[in-house]
Amino acid sequence: MKIADLDNPVRAGWLAEQGFRLDARPYVSQAYAARAFLRRLPRTDPLGRVTARIFHPGRVKRQWTTDPAYGVPFLGSADIFEADLSWLPLMATAAFKSNSNLPLEPGWTLITRSGMTAGRVTCARPGMAGYACSEDVLRVVPDPAEIPSGYLYAFLASPFGIPMIKGGIYGTSVRHIEPHHIADLPVPRLGDEVETRIHELMEQAAELRERFQAGIVGATRDLFKSAGLAHLLDLRWHDQPRDLDFEVHRLGPTSLRALNYSPRAQRILAELASVPHRTLGDICAGGSLRTGARFKRVDADPEHGIRLIGQRQAFWLRPEGRWINASRAPADIRQADETVLVAAHGTLGETEVFARSIFVTGRWLDFAFSQDFVRVLSGQEDLPGAYLYALLRSEAAFRMLRSMSVGGKQQEFHPTLLRRLPVPECTVSDRRRIAETVRGAFRDRDEADRKEDQAMALLDEAVRKAAR
Protein backbone atom coordinates (compact mmCIF):
# COMPACT_ATOMS: atom_id res chain seq x y z
CA MET A 1 0.00 0.00 0.00
CA LYS A 2 1.33 3.44 -0.95
CA ILE A 3 1.09 6.33 1.47
CA ALA A 4 2.14 9.96 1.16
CA ASP A 5 5.62 10.89 2.38
CA LEU A 6 5.40 12.73 5.71
CA ASP A 7 8.20 15.07 4.52
CA ASN A 8 6.11 15.89 1.45
CA PRO A 9 2.45 15.73 2.55
CA VAL A 10 -0.51 16.23 0.24
CA ARG A 11 -1.36 19.95 0.16
CA ALA A 12 -4.54 21.85 -0.61
CA GLY A 13 -2.97 23.20 -3.78
CA TRP A 14 -2.58 19.66 -5.11
CA LEU A 15 -6.32 19.10 -4.76
CA ALA A 16 -7.03 22.19 -6.83
CA GLU A 17 -4.57 21.13 -9.53
CA GLN A 18 -6.31 17.75 -9.79
CA GLY A 19 -9.83 19.20 -9.98
CA PHE A 20 -10.50 18.35 -6.32
CA ARG A 21 -10.34 14.63 -6.99
CA LEU A 22 -10.67 12.72 -3.72
CA ASP A 23 -9.24 9.38 -4.84
CA ALA A 24 -5.68 8.78 -3.65
CA ARG A 25 -4.05 7.77 -6.96
CA PRO A 26 -2.60 11.12 -8.16
CA TYR A 27 -1.47 12.21 -4.71
CA VAL A 28 0.59 9.13 -3.87
CA SER A 29 2.16 9.02 -7.33
CA GLN A 30 5.90 9.35 -6.73
CA ALA A 31 6.34 11.34 -9.95
CA TYR A 32 3.64 13.85 -9.03
CA ALA A 33 4.89 14.12 -5.45
CA ALA A 34 8.49 14.71 -6.60
CA ARG A 35 7.47 17.48 -9.00
CA ALA A 36 5.29 19.09 -6.33
CA PHE A 37 8.13 18.92 -3.82
CA LEU A 38 10.65 20.49 -6.21
CA ARG A 39 8.29 23.41 -6.86
CA ARG A 40 9.05 24.48 -3.29
CA LEU A 41 12.70 25.17 -4.24
CA PRO A 42 13.82 28.74 -5.01
CA ARG A 43 15.14 27.73 -8.42
CA THR A 44 14.82 24.83 -10.83
CA ASP A 45 15.74 24.63 -14.51
CA PRO A 46 14.07 22.39 -17.09
CA LEU A 47 16.26 19.47 -18.09
CA GLY A 48 16.15 20.63 -21.69
CA ARG A 49 17.74 23.96 -20.72
CA VAL A 50 20.79 22.48 -18.94
CA THR A 51 21.54 19.83 -21.58
CA ALA A 52 23.10 20.06 -25.02
CA ARG A 53 21.05 17.10 -26.27
CA ILE A 54 18.66 14.39 -25.10
CA PHE A 55 18.55 11.70 -27.76
CA HIS A 56 18.75 8.08 -28.79
CA PRO A 57 20.48 7.00 -32.01
CA GLY A 58 17.49 5.38 -33.70
CA ARG A 59 17.40 1.88 -35.04
CA VAL A 60 20.48 0.55 -36.75
CA LYS A 61 21.23 -2.75 -38.43
CA ARG A 62 23.25 -4.78 -35.95
CA GLN A 63 26.09 -6.73 -37.51
CA TRP A 64 28.45 -8.66 -35.27
CA THR A 65 32.03 -9.87 -35.34
CA THR A 66 34.32 -11.85 -33.03
CA ASP A 67 37.51 -10.11 -34.16
CA PRO A 68 38.44 -7.05 -32.05
CA ALA A 69 40.29 -5.61 -35.04
CA TYR A 70 36.99 -5.24 -36.91
CA GLY A 71 34.56 -4.51 -34.10
CA VAL A 72 33.54 -2.07 -31.37
CA PRO A 73 32.22 -3.16 -27.94
CA PHE A 74 28.42 -2.88 -27.88
CA LEU A 75 26.40 -2.01 -24.76
CA GLY A 76 22.82 -3.22 -24.55
CA SER A 77 20.29 -1.71 -22.19
CA ALA A 78 21.33 -4.16 -19.44
CA ASP A 79 25.06 -3.98 -20.18
CA ILE A 80 25.29 -0.31 -19.18
CA PHE A 81 24.93 -1.41 -15.54
CA GLU A 82 27.67 -4.07 -15.71
CA ALA A 83 30.61 -3.77 -13.31
CA ASP A 84 33.02 -5.63 -15.60
CA LEU A 85 32.93 -4.61 -19.27
CA SER A 86 35.33 -7.33 -20.44
CA TRP A 87 32.78 -9.59 -22.12
CA LEU A 88 30.75 -7.28 -24.34
CA PRO A 89 29.77 -8.42 -27.85
CA LEU A 90 31.47 -6.66 -30.76
CA MET A 91 29.49 -4.65 -33.28
CA ALA A 92 31.03 -4.69 -36.75
CA THR A 93 32.92 -1.47 -37.42
CA ALA A 94 31.04 -0.90 -40.70
CA ALA A 95 27.66 -1.00 -38.93
CA PHE A 96 29.01 1.16 -36.11
CA LYS A 97 30.21 3.87 -38.51
CA SER A 98 26.85 3.96 -40.27
CA ASN A 99 25.35 5.96 -37.37
CA SER A 100 27.35 8.78 -35.81
CA ASN A 101 25.05 8.79 -32.75
CA LEU A 102 26.06 5.32 -31.56
CA PRO A 103 29.30 6.09 -29.64
CA LEU A 104 29.17 7.16 -26.00
CA GLU A 105 31.15 9.88 -24.25
CA PRO A 106 32.09 9.91 -20.54
CA GLY A 107 29.87 12.06 -18.35
CA TRP A 108 26.64 11.39 -20.20
CA THR A 109 23.69 10.15 -18.19
CA LEU A 110 22.18 6.96 -19.64
CA ILE A 111 18.50 6.06 -19.16
CA THR A 112 16.88 2.83 -20.31
CA ARG A 113 13.94 3.78 -22.50
CA SER A 114 12.21 0.57 -23.57
CA GLY A 115 10.62 -2.49 -21.99
CA MET A 116 9.80 -3.42 -18.41
CA THR A 117 13.08 -1.94 -17.12
CA ALA A 118 12.51 1.50 -18.68
CA GLY A 119 13.56 4.38 -16.45
CA ARG A 120 16.74 2.95 -14.91
CA VAL A 121 19.65 5.39 -14.75
CA THR A 122 23.44 5.13 -14.84
CA CYS A 123 26.29 7.17 -16.30
CA ALA A 124 28.80 6.63 -19.09
CA ARG A 125 32.09 5.80 -17.38
CA PRO A 126 35.49 6.73 -18.88
CA GLY A 127 36.00 3.13 -19.99
CA MET A 128 32.86 3.35 -22.15
CA ALA A 129 34.29 6.13 -24.32
CA GLY A 130 33.71 5.31 -27.98
CA TYR A 131 31.63 2.19 -27.27
CA ALA A 132 28.47 1.58 -29.26
CA CYS A 133 25.24 1.68 -27.30
CA SER A 134 21.74 0.43 -28.01
CA GLU A 135 18.91 2.58 -29.31
CA ASP A 136 17.02 1.42 -26.21
CA VAL A 137 19.11 3.81 -24.11
CA LEU A 138 18.52 7.57 -23.90
CA ARG A 139 21.62 9.77 -23.82
CA VAL A 140 21.34 12.89 -21.66
CA VAL A 141 24.24 15.16 -22.65
CA PRO A 142 24.90 17.92 -20.10
CA ASP A 143 25.84 21.40 -21.26
CA PRO A 144 29.09 22.07 -19.35
CA ALA A 145 28.41 25.81 -19.43
CA GLU A 146 25.12 25.24 -17.58
CA ILE A 147 25.61 22.32 -15.18
CA PRO A 148 28.31 19.92 -13.95
CA SER A 149 27.85 16.46 -15.47
CA GLY A 150 28.32 14.57 -12.20
CA TYR A 151 25.72 16.69 -10.45
CA LEU A 152 23.16 16.19 -13.23
CA TYR A 153 23.68 12.43 -13.12
CA ALA A 154 23.36 12.39 -9.33
CA PHE A 155 20.03 14.20 -9.50
CA LEU A 156 18.58 12.06 -12.30
CA ALA A 157 19.62 8.88 -10.45
CA SER A 158 18.24 10.12 -7.12
CA PRO A 159 14.88 9.40 -5.46
CA PHE A 160 13.77 12.78 -6.86
CA GLY A 161 14.81 12.16 -10.45
CA ILE A 162 13.92 8.53 -11.07
CA PRO A 163 10.18 8.80 -10.20
CA MET A 164 9.80 11.74 -12.58
CA ILE A 165 11.63 9.89 -15.34
CA LYS A 166 9.41 6.85 -14.86
CA GLY A 167 6.39 9.15 -14.79
CA GLY A 168 7.07 9.86 -18.46
CA ILE A 169 6.75 6.21 -19.49
CA TYR A 170 3.97 5.40 -21.92
CA GLY A 171 2.70 2.16 -23.41
CA THR A 172 1.30 -1.11 -22.09
CA SER A 173 3.03 -4.33 -23.11
CA VAL A 174 6.11 -2.48 -24.42
CA ARG A 175 6.80 0.67 -22.44
CA HIS A 176 8.86 3.58 -23.79
CA ILE A 177 10.32 6.94 -22.88
CA GLU A 178 11.07 9.54 -25.53
CA PRO A 179 13.38 12.56 -25.13
CA HIS A 180 10.50 15.07 -25.10
CA HIS A 181 8.86 13.20 -22.21
CA ILE A 182 11.63 14.26 -19.82
CA ALA A 183 12.75 17.58 -21.37
CA ASP A 184 10.63 19.59 -18.91
CA LEU A 185 11.80 17.66 -15.85
CA PRO A 186 12.74 20.25 -13.17
CA VAL A 187 16.40 20.16 -12.12
CA PRO A 188 17.07 21.87 -8.76
CA ARG A 189 19.85 24.45 -8.74
CA LEU A 190 21.66 24.38 -5.41
CA GLY A 191 24.53 26.78 -5.96
CA ASP A 192 27.99 26.31 -7.45
CA GLU A 193 29.60 25.07 -4.23
CA VAL A 194 27.17 22.20 -3.62
CA GLU A 195 26.82 21.22 -7.27
CA THR A 196 30.60 21.22 -7.77
CA ARG A 197 31.15 19.09 -4.66
CA ILE A 198 28.60 16.51 -5.82
CA HIS A 199 30.17 16.52 -9.29
CA GLU A 200 33.65 15.96 -7.85
CA LEU A 201 32.46 13.01 -5.76
CA MET A 202 30.87 11.42 -8.83
CA GLU A 203 34.01 12.01 -10.89
CA GLN A 204 36.15 10.40 -8.18
CA ALA A 205 33.79 7.41 -8.12
CA ALA A 206 34.10 7.02 -11.90
CA GLU A 207 37.91 7.08 -11.68
CA LEU A 208 37.84 4.43 -8.94
CA ARG A 209 35.62 2.22 -11.09
CA GLU A 210 38.17 2.46 -13.88
CA ARG A 211 40.89 1.40 -11.45
CA PHE A 212 38.69 -1.53 -10.42
CA GLN A 213 38.31 -2.63 -14.05
CA ALA A 214 42.02 -2.28 -14.74
CA GLY A 215 42.86 -4.16 -11.53
CA ILE A 216 40.82 -7.30 -12.17
CA VAL A 217 41.86 -7.46 -15.84
CA GLY A 218 45.50 -6.96 -14.84
CA ALA A 219 45.30 -9.70 -12.18
CA THR A 220 44.01 -12.22 -14.74
CA ARG A 221 46.74 -11.30 -17.23
CA ASP A 222 49.36 -11.56 -14.48
CA LEU A 223 48.16 -15.06 -13.51
CA PHE A 224 48.33 -16.50 -17.01
CA LYS A 225 51.69 -14.88 -17.77
CA SER A 226 53.16 -16.05 -14.47
CA ALA A 227 51.95 -19.60 -15.20
CA GLY A 228 53.56 -19.53 -18.66
CA LEU A 229 50.15 -19.62 -20.35
CA ALA A 230 49.94 -16.11 -21.77
CA HIS A 231 48.67 -17.50 -25.10
CA LEU A 232 45.38 -18.44 -23.37
CA LEU A 233 44.60 -14.75 -22.80
CA ASP A 234 43.56 -14.39 -26.43
CA LEU A 235 41.59 -17.57 -27.08
CA ARG A 236 39.74 -16.50 -30.25
CA TRP A 237 37.25 -19.23 -29.37
CA HIS A 238 35.02 -18.69 -32.36
CA ASP A 239 37.94 -18.62 -34.78
CA GLN A 240 38.83 -22.21 -33.85
CA PRO A 241 37.26 -25.15 -35.72
CA ARG A 242 33.82 -26.03 -34.37
CA ASP A 243 33.36 -29.11 -32.18
CA LEU A 244 32.07 -31.37 -34.94
CA ASP A 245 32.98 -34.90 -35.99
CA PHE A 246 35.35 -35.83 -33.14
CA GLU A 247 36.01 -39.10 -31.37
CA VAL A 248 36.42 -39.81 -27.67
CA HIS A 249 38.09 -43.00 -26.47
CA ARG A 250 37.95 -44.83 -23.13
CA LEU A 251 34.67 -43.31 -21.99
CA GLY A 252 33.74 -43.89 -18.36
CA PRO A 253 30.49 -43.63 -16.42
CA THR A 254 31.03 -39.95 -15.59
CA SER A 255 29.32 -38.54 -18.69
CA LEU A 256 28.12 -39.44 -22.17
CA ARG A 257 27.37 -35.85 -23.19
CA ALA A 258 29.39 -34.68 -26.21
CA LEU A 259 29.71 -31.12 -24.84
CA ASN A 260 31.68 -32.46 -21.87
CA TYR A 261 34.37 -33.65 -24.30
CA SER A 262 34.53 -30.50 -26.43
CA PRO A 263 37.93 -30.56 -28.19
CA ARG A 264 38.36 -26.80 -27.83
CA ALA A 265 37.71 -26.96 -24.07
CA GLN A 266 39.83 -30.09 -23.68
CA ARG A 267 42.79 -28.27 -25.22
CA ILE A 268 42.46 -25.53 -22.57
CA LEU A 269 42.20 -28.12 -19.80
CA ALA A 270 45.30 -29.89 -21.12
CA GLU A 271 47.24 -26.61 -21.21
CA LEU A 272 46.35 -25.78 -17.61
CA ALA A 273 47.18 -29.33 -16.51
CA SER A 274 50.57 -29.12 -18.23
CA VAL A 275 51.92 -26.68 -15.61
CA PRO A 276 52.15 -27.21 -11.83
CA HIS A 277 48.56 -27.14 -10.62
CA ARG A 278 46.02 -28.31 -8.08
CA THR A 279 42.45 -29.31 -8.81
CA LEU A 280 39.60 -27.06 -7.72
CA GLY A 281 38.17 -29.94 -5.68
CA ASP A 282 41.39 -30.31 -3.67
CA ILE A 283 41.65 -26.57 -3.08
CA CYS A 284 38.05 -26.37 -1.82
CA ALA A 285 38.16 -29.58 0.25
CA GLY A 286 38.24 -27.61 3.49
CA GLY A 287 35.99 -24.85 2.18
CA SER A 288 33.03 -25.10 -0.18
CA LEU A 289 32.30 -26.12 -3.77
CA ARG A 290 28.54 -26.43 -4.14
CA THR A 291 25.40 -24.52 -5.01
CA GLY A 292 23.21 -23.07 -2.28
CA ALA A 293 20.17 -24.61 -0.65
CA ARG A 294 16.81 -23.82 -2.23
CA PHE A 295 14.48 -21.77 -0.08
CA LYS A 296 11.24 -19.84 -0.05
CA ARG A 297 11.67 -16.06 -0.17
CA VAL A 298 9.84 -14.24 2.60
CA ASP A 299 9.81 -10.51 1.87
CA ALA A 300 10.81 -7.97 4.52
CA ASP A 301 11.25 -4.22 4.69
CA PRO A 302 14.82 -2.87 4.32
CA GLU A 303 15.02 -1.93 7.99
CA HIS A 304 14.65 -5.54 9.10
CA GLY A 305 15.69 -7.53 6.02
CA ILE A 306 18.70 -8.36 3.90
CA ARG A 307 19.11 -7.61 0.22
CA LEU A 308 18.98 -10.79 -1.88
CA ILE A 309 21.07 -10.78 -5.05
CA GLY A 310 20.30 -13.17 -7.90
CA GLN A 311 22.30 -14.10 -10.98
CA ARG A 312 21.03 -11.29 -13.18
CA GLN A 313 21.94 -8.37 -10.91
CA ALA A 314 25.03 -9.89 -9.32
CA PHE A 315 27.12 -8.54 -12.19
CA TRP A 316 25.82 -4.97 -11.89
CA LEU A 317 27.74 -2.08 -10.35
CA ARG A 318 24.98 -1.45 -7.80
CA PRO A 319 22.57 -4.40 -7.62
CA GLU A 320 19.04 -3.64 -6.47
CA GLY A 321 17.66 -7.06 -5.55
CA ARG A 322 14.76 -7.65 -3.16
CA TRP A 323 14.65 -7.53 0.62
CA ILE A 324 13.98 -10.81 2.41
CA ASN A 325 13.73 -12.10 5.98
CA ALA A 326 17.13 -13.69 6.71
CA SER A 327 15.76 -15.71 9.63
CA ARG A 328 13.45 -17.57 7.22
CA ALA A 329 16.28 -18.49 4.84
CA PRO A 330 19.22 -20.95 5.09
CA ALA A 331 22.54 -19.76 6.53
CA ASP A 332 24.37 -20.12 3.23
CA ILE A 333 22.69 -17.06 1.74
CA ARG A 334 25.54 -15.16 3.43
CA GLN A 335 29.06 -15.72 2.15
CA ALA A 336 32.44 -15.88 3.83
CA ASP A 337 35.00 -13.27 2.84
CA GLU A 338 36.71 -13.98 -0.51
CA THR A 339 34.12 -16.45 -1.72
CA VAL A 340 33.93 -16.69 -5.51
CA LEU A 341 30.38 -17.16 -6.79
CA VAL A 342 29.93 -18.78 -10.20
CA ALA A 343 26.55 -18.40 -11.92
CA ALA A 344 25.42 -22.02 -11.98
CA HIS A 345 22.05 -22.08 -13.72
CA GLY A 346 21.13 -20.82 -17.16
CA THR A 347 21.48 -21.34 -20.86
CA LEU A 348 24.48 -21.43 -23.21
CA GLY A 349 23.85 -18.13 -25.03
CA GLU A 350 27.04 -16.14 -25.53
CA THR A 351 25.73 -13.14 -23.60
CA GLU A 352 24.19 -15.18 -20.76
CA VAL A 353 25.83 -15.04 -17.32
CA PHE A 354 25.92 -18.83 -16.86
CA ALA A 355 29.55 -19.74 -15.85
CA ARG A 356 30.57 -16.14 -15.16
CA SER A 357 32.04 -15.33 -11.74
CA ILE A 358 31.84 -12.61 -9.08
CA PHE A 359 33.90 -12.03 -5.94
CA VAL A 360 32.34 -11.44 -2.53
CA THR A 361 34.30 -9.18 -0.21
CA GLY A 362 34.04 -5.80 1.50
CA ARG A 363 30.58 -4.22 1.32
CA TRP A 364 29.16 -7.16 -0.62
CA LEU A 365 29.44 -9.32 2.50
CA ASP A 366 26.28 -7.52 3.65
CA PHE A 367 24.27 -9.05 0.78
CA ALA A 368 22.50 -12.39 0.58
CA PHE A 369 22.90 -14.53 -2.54
CA SER A 370 20.46 -16.94 -4.13
CA GLN A 371 21.02 -20.66 -4.51
CA ASP A 372 21.87 -20.17 -8.19
CA PHE A 373 25.60 -19.80 -7.58
CA VAL A 374 28.35 -22.32 -6.94
CA ARG A 375 30.01 -21.22 -3.70
CA VAL A 376 33.77 -21.54 -4.36
CA LEU A 377 35.55 -21.09 -1.03
CA SER A 378 39.19 -22.07 -0.76
CA GLY A 379 40.24 -24.34 2.07
CA GLN A 380 43.94 -23.62 1.54
CA GLU A 381 45.50 -20.40 2.82
CA ASP A 382 48.18 -20.32 0.15
CA LEU A 383 45.54 -20.33 -2.63
CA PRO A 384 43.09 -17.64 -1.47
CA GLY A 385 39.78 -16.76 -3.06
CA ALA A 386 41.21 -13.58 -4.59
CA TYR A 387 43.67 -15.70 -6.59
CA LEU A 388 40.93 -18.13 -7.65
CA TYR A 389 38.80 -15.22 -8.85
CA ALA A 390 41.58 -14.00 -11.14
CA LEU A 391 41.42 -17.40 -12.86
CA LEU A 392 37.67 -18.03 -12.78
CA ARG A 393 36.78 -14.65 -14.31
CA SER A 394 38.93 -15.43 -17.38
CA GLU A 395 37.68 -16.40 -20.82
CA ALA A 396 39.56 -19.70 -20.54
CA ALA A 397 37.78 -20.63 -17.29
CA PHE A 398 34.43 -19.53 -18.75
CA ARG A 399 34.85 -21.91 -21.69
CA MET A 400 35.98 -24.79 -19.47
CA LEU A 401 33.06 -24.31 -17.10
CA ARG A 402 30.59 -24.18 -19.98
CA SER A 403 31.97 -27.51 -21.22
CA MET A 404 31.25 -29.04 -17.80
CA SER A 405 27.52 -28.38 -17.96
CA VAL A 406 24.65 -30.85 -17.84
CA GLY A 407 20.92 -30.45 -18.31
CA GLY A 408 18.36 -29.68 -20.98
CA LYS A 409 17.14 -26.11 -21.42
CA GLN A 410 18.53 -25.01 -18.05
CA GLN A 411 22.16 -25.95 -17.55
CA GLU A 412 24.11 -26.60 -14.37
CA PHE A 413 27.59 -27.95 -13.62
CA HIS A 414 28.61 -31.59 -13.46
CA PRO A 415 30.05 -31.80 -9.93
CA THR A 416 32.71 -34.39 -10.76
CA LEU A 417 34.01 -32.43 -13.74
CA LEU A 418 33.96 -29.21 -11.72
CA ARG A 419 36.14 -30.74 -9.01
CA ARG A 420 38.69 -31.79 -11.66
CA LEU A 421 39.23 -28.26 -13.00
CA PRO A 422 43.01 -27.54 -12.89
CA VAL A 423 44.18 -24.36 -11.15
CA PRO A 424 47.76 -23.24 -12.00
CA GLU A 425 49.83 -22.80 -8.86
CA CYS A 426 52.41 -20.22 -10.00
CA THR A 427 54.95 -19.31 -7.31
CA VAL A 428 54.10 -18.20 -3.77
CA SER A 429 55.16 -14.62 -4.54
CA ASP A 430 53.11 -14.64 -7.76
CA ARG A 431 50.00 -15.82 -5.92
CA ARG A 432 50.37 -13.17 -3.25
CA ARG A 433 50.86 -10.40 -5.80
CA ILE A 434 47.90 -11.49 -7.93
CA ALA A 435 45.61 -11.87 -4.91
CA GLU A 436 46.56 -8.44 -3.60
CA THR A 437 45.85 -6.87 -7.00
CA VAL A 438 42.33 -8.32 -6.88
CA ARG A 439 41.82 -7.16 -3.30
CA GLY A 440 43.00 -3.66 -4.19
CA ALA A 441 40.59 -3.55 -7.13
CA PHE A 442 37.63 -4.43 -4.92
CA ARG A 443 38.69 -1.87 -2.32
CA ASP A 444 38.52 0.68 -5.13
CA ARG A 445 35.05 -0.57 -6.01
CA ASP A 446 33.84 -0.20 -2.44
CA GLU A 447 35.34 3.28 -2.23
CA ALA A 448 33.56 4.24 -5.46
CA ASP A 449 30.27 3.13 -3.89
CA ARG A 450 31.02 5.24 -0.82
CA LYS A 451 31.76 8.31 -2.94
CA GLU A 452 28.46 7.90 -4.78
CA ASP A 453 26.61 7.44 -1.49
CA GLN A 454 28.20 10.64 -0.15
CA ALA A 455 27.14 12.54 -3.27
CA MET A 456 23.56 11.27 -3.00
CA ALA A 457 23.37 12.12 0.70
CA LEU A 458 24.69 15.63 0.03
CA LEU A 459 22.15 16.10 -2.78
CA ASP A 460 19.26 14.92 -0.61
CA GLU A 461 20.28 17.16 2.29
CA ALA A 462 20.72 20.22 0.06
CA VAL A 463 17.39 19.73 -1.75
CA ARG A 464 15.43 19.28 1.46
CA LYS A 465 17.13 22.28 3.05
CA ALA A 466 16.33 24.45 0.04
CA ALA A 467 12.69 23.34 0.13
CA ARG A 468 12.06 24.50 3.70
Share of residues in helices? 25-40%
CATH class of the largest domain: Alpha Beta
Question: What's the CATH architecture name of the largest domain?
Answer: Alpha-Beta Complex
**Helix/strand/pairing class, anyone?**
alpha+beta
CATH superfamily of the largest domain: DNA methylase specificity domains
Largest sheet: 4 strands, antiparallel
Domains, number: 3
Low-confidence spans: none
Any idea of the CATH topology of the largest domain?
Answer: Adenine-n6-DNA-methyltransferase TaqI, Chain A, domain 2
Please indicate the percent range of residues in DSSP E strands (runs of 2 or more). 15-25%
Tell me, what's the shape?
A: globular
Task: Report mean pLDDT, rounded to a whole number.
Answer: 92
Question: Keywords for this structure?
Answer:
468 residues; Adenine-n6-DNA-methyltransferase TaqI, Chain A, domain 2; 3 domains; 15 helices
How does the SSE layout of this entry go?
Elements: H1 12-17, H2 25-28, H3 30-38, E1 44-46, H4 47-50, E2 51-55, E3 64-65, E4 71-75, E5 90-92, H5 93-97, E6 109-112, E7 121-123, E8 132-133, E9 137-142, H6 149-156, H7 161-167, H8 179-182, E10 186-188, H9 192-226, H10 263-273, E11 277-279, H11 280-283, E12 288-291, E13 306-309, E14 322-324, E15 339-343, E16 357-360, E17 368-369, E18 373-377, H12 385-392, H13 395-403, E19 405-407, E20 411-413, H14 415-419, E21 422-424, H15 428-466
Parallel strand pairs: 4-8, 13-17
Antiparallel strand pairs: 1-10, 2-9, 3-5, 4-5, 6-7, 6-9, 11-21, 12-18, 13-14, 15-16, 15-18, 19-20
